[in-house]
Every structure is written in C-alpha cells, then in structure tokens.
Amino acid sequence: MSNFHSLSRRSLRSGLAAGVLALALAGCATGPDFVRPAPAAPDDWTSWRSADDSLRMPVGGEQPLPERWWRAFGDPLLNRLQERALDASPDLRTAALRFAQARVQRNTVAAQQGPEVGVSGGVNRQRQSEYGAGTRMIDAIGVDDRATLAKILSEPFTLYQAGFDASWELDLWGRVRRSIEAADADVAGQAALLDLARLSLASDVAGNYFELRTTQRQIRLAREDIAALDDRLQLLAARVRGGVVHHLDLERQRAELAALKAQLPGLLAQEGASINQIALLLGETPGALRGELAAPAAEGGNAPPDLALGLPSEVALRRPDIRAAEARLHRATANIGVARAELYPSIRLGARFGLESYLSGEFADWGSRAWSVGPSLNLPLFDQGRRKSVVQLRELEQQEAAVNYHQTVLKAWQEIDDTLSAYAADRQQLRELEVRAEAAEQAWQLAQARYDGGATDFLAVLDARRGHLQARRDLVTAQGRLNNRFVTVNKVVGNG
C-alpha cells in the first residue's frame, strides 16, 4: 500500500506540473487573431452613384423602414401569406436545420476542451497456446516437465475485468480554441444565411403576389378592351354595310381584335403560374391557393411608402450576405491557427484504474487492482511536408475569403445604387402615366359629352374609351413594377 501511495503522489505531482504548464501556455494560440473588417460605405446617399442626377431621390428619415415592410401596403391577404410562408416554407426550414447543425457541430468541437472518461468491463473465456508467447518463459527457464506445466498454463480460464480510464489533451498551442473559434464563425455564417433565406422568402412572396395582382388587373382591363373593340367592330360592320366606311377599315379592326384576344391566354397562364409559385413558397400543392388568390384586388392598391434607409454604414452591416462573407473570413482565419498547432507536439494526460482477475472470488480483492497514470507525447518529425502544406493552404483560403468579402461589399453597393436609381425612375414614370391616364379619362368623358350633344359619332367615343383603357393598362404595369421595386429595395439593403 505504501508503494502505491508513493507512486500516486509522484503521478499527482507530474499531473500538477503538466497542469501548471498548460495554464502558463493557455494564452498561447497559434495563428493570426481575427480583426473584424470595416466594410466600405459611402458617407451619405449622394455619394457612390452612377445614374443621372435626375434619378436621385431622398432616402432619409428619422424612422427606418420596418422589418415587416410588406405591411406598409395595407393588404391583409399579403400579410397572411407572409406569416404562413415563415411558418411552412421548405426553404426556410432547410436553412433553419443547417443553422441547428452548425450549433451542434460547435458543441461537438467544444467538447474537446474537457477530459474524456470511460468505463469498461468484460468477462472472457480464453485459452493460451502451449507454444505461444505466454508459455515461452517455460523454455527460457528450462523446466524439466515442460509438457505438464505448459498443459496446466494452457487450460481454459475465465478472465474478469472492470475499470475506468480518463484522458485529456492539453491545448498548449490553441488547436482546440481555434477550432471552437472556427465553429463559432460557422454558426454566425449559418445564422446570416438563415436571415438571408428569410429575407429572400419574404421578397419572393411579395414579388410574386404583386406580379399576380398586376396580371389579374391586366386580364380585367384586356377583357374590357376586347369588349370595347368588339363594340367598335360591330359599329364599323354596320357602317360598311351602309357603304359609309371602306371594308379595309373593318378588316384592320378584326386583325387588331384578334391580336388583342391572343394576349389573353398568355395572361391567364401567367396568372396560374404566379399562384403556383406562391403555393410552392408556402409548401402547398398546385391549386391549393386558387380560391384565395383568384379574386383580384382593387385596381391601383396602396403606393409604396417613402424610403428611410438609415445610415449607409448600418445598411452595409445588416446585409446577410456581407455578414456571411465576414463569418467565412473569420472561420478561414481561425483555421490557420488550427493548422499551425498541428506543427507542434501534443501532450495527453491519461489515467486508468481497474480490477482484473481470473478467479471470480478474488475479483473484488484489492490485490486485483491494476492502474496506470501519466502523460503521453506526440511529436511530429517528418511527414513529407504535409502539415506545412496544410498551413499554406489555410492561408490561401483566408486570402480568398478576404477577396470574397471585399467583392461582396462592392456588389452590395452596386445593387443598392442600381435599385435606388431604378426605383426613382419607376416613380417618375408612374407619375407621368398617372397624368396620362387622367388625361385619357377626360378625353373619354369629353367624347361622350360631344356624342350626347350630337357633335360627333360613337366611333370617337369608342376610340377615346380604348385610349383610356390602354392608359390604365400601362399604369397598372407601372404600379406593379414600382411595388416590386420597393420589394427589391428592402432586399438589397438587408431589411427584414
């Protein structure tokens, strides 16, 4: 017992010495520390623009755009579709599962920080060879009756074993710490991609919804235009029969009516495709939303609100793709430390205690104990330069991630500039088309008044009505385009 206690004290002192060494080197982690990059951003919204000054629009405001920006349109059905999509979208669920996987992987890596403890036990029936390694000592000693002794030693017996073992790798060079840092960066990257999936989903639902409503309004106006042209054609046919108008004018009107009718099937197919696309985003089967979305909304709808994007630097920092690129750069930087730590020796502290006996009655006896304790060293000497090549590879990956981050920021500002310019252009176009539609309506009313007063024939009224319908069709297209542009603005600035 005294020998065991003295050995235990010496092992304990060795373990404490190794622990002190580990604590002394705890702050040492190989590889560069990650420094968060400051994304390039303009000082204000008047800078970094390529479009004409006439397309510059004010985007300031005390209150930023709300995260649920689609509520600004005041459409209850759109709001319900967005909520359902957030709950049931397959794409969003996939992104959420990837985020969950990254968190579990981080916990797996972090588990390397602590010791590993295991318990083992077993009962084995075994027999040794009469001429094996276990009986070689008989020949070395030179026993007279070798055969009898070898037979006794080779008789089958049962071996009882039980015990536990523990091991702990000292993180002297920060390999585990850098691995955890890389795993944390991966979690942050997956969180950014989850936000990107959520933002893309909201944008796709709103975009397809506005395309559907625009198509439905176009269908209604096309049918009104067809009815108006059909009325004009019947009136022309009557005048041709009376010899007032040449037959050529009638055929031209028939050709125009046929061309107008030819547009209707395509619009109907487009309506069905938009409904199906929304259903796909919500995880529904084709036709499941037909009843909800078949009835078109009122013409015009609510106009998009004024933009209030906040400071340019804040806009850049909240874009999910920029955050994901930063996380990839962080992970690549941490992986350099992991690779460099592999160049240095590793020390693992181990201990084992157990019981072992071939006699069942003596298994619990203190004399059946077996134990071991002490460190083990792994020192890499020669591996054909593999470890150094891995370090070089990780450094190149970090450089690639840095270039990708810079490119992502530049692309973000290019998309923002293009979208804001297009949004300003669409707003200006919409204002002019509203003036045109109002003028066309006035012309139609004047033509109707002249016809009622006998100053003109009904053809002038039909022509004015068709002109008004065409102006409304162009206005509806512009309104839908501006709504979709507002969706794109929120997407490119990472809102929501």
Largest sheet: 4 strands, antiparallel
Give me the CATH architecture of the largest domain, please: Up-down Bundle
Cα shape: elongated
Count of domain modules: 2
One letter per element, helices H and strands E, the order comes to HHHEHHEHHHHHEEHH
Tally of extended strands?
A: 4
Calculate the mean pLDDT score and round it: 84
Q: For the CA atoms, what is the radius of gyration?
A: 40 Å
CATH topology heading of the largest domain: Outer membrane efflux proteins (OEP)
- List low-pLDDT spans: 1-9, 22-26
Helix/strand/pairing category:
alpha+beta
Kindly report the spatial arrangement of strands forming the biggest sheet: 1-2-3-4
N- and C-termini, Cα separation: 70 Å
| CATH 4th-level superfamily of the largest domain | Outer membrane efflux proteins (OEP)
Strand content: 5-15%
CATH class of the largest domain: Mainly Alpha
Q: If you had to describe this structure to a student in words, what would you say it looks like?
A:
This protein is of the alpha+beta class. The protein folds into two domains: 1-27 and 114-170 and 345-379, Outer membrane efflux proteins (OEP); 31-109 and 177-343 and 386-492, Outer membrane efflux proteins (OEP) (Up-down Bundle), CATH 1.20.1600. It has twelve helices and four strands. It starts with a helix and ends with a helix.
